[in-house]
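Meet my pick.
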Amino acid sequence: MKRKHLLLMISCLAALLLAGYATLRLTMPRTIDEENFQAINKGMTEKEVEAILGGACSSHAPLGCLYFSEGGWGNLVDWEFLRNRNGKEWTGKTFCLFICFNEIGRVEEIYSGHVFQSESFLAKFRNWLGM
């Protein structure tokens, strides 16, 4: 009887560890970088953008990124300007993109930026595990 309880406890622990690992893996930030930014062109559909960036957007409004206009580092984009655009945000570990779509769902404007928000608990835990 004790052996069955021990096997059950070990099985439950293994299932719990596997579920935790899967959760950490599935919530990892996407790889969004300069290469992705260069691959996106005006006139692309949202589906084409999702294929390049690896899935649906992270959010519909800028959260923890500093965005720059085409002029570069000295030209910060005002958050209110972005919030009033028909855009979506894709956020990676350190790089983010805000893409504005026109009324027919095609890319109209692209803003790149860098993530500045502090790391979440899951991000810190992933780093600790080397993920």
User: Anything to note?
Assistant: The two ends are 39 Å apart (CA to CA). The chain is about 40% helix and 20% strand. Residues 29-129 form one domain.
